[in-house]
Amino acid sequence: MIDEKEIRKAAAGKFNVGGLVNTVERIAFKEGVEWFKHAIWHDTSETPEEGKQILYTATEGGEIVDVKVTTTALYDFIPWNEVVRDFNISKWCYIEDLLPKGGEK
Questions:
Q1: Residue 102 — left, alpha, or beta (φ > 0 → left; ψ -120 to 50 → alpha)?
Q2: Element (H, E) at 25
């Protein structure tokens, strides 16, 4: 999990310490990370692209009870809204949005 200390450490490593501009840059970096952590998730009303790998969360009673990775299929066979209902999917994201481009660490 990316916690507050890791975000601060990464921000400090990207910008020179000191000065108002650098403080603003670090704050913007931190807020960008927080934005990204929410922006990658899609609502279940949006159908994922066919053939893409997704990560989804399943919830019961408002709590996450399962997290799975799957490759999306033809939703003509089983419509996406039925998949969402049957597996209690609450949100999903593309795996490629989580990983660095080009395979570098």
A1: left
A2: helix 20-39
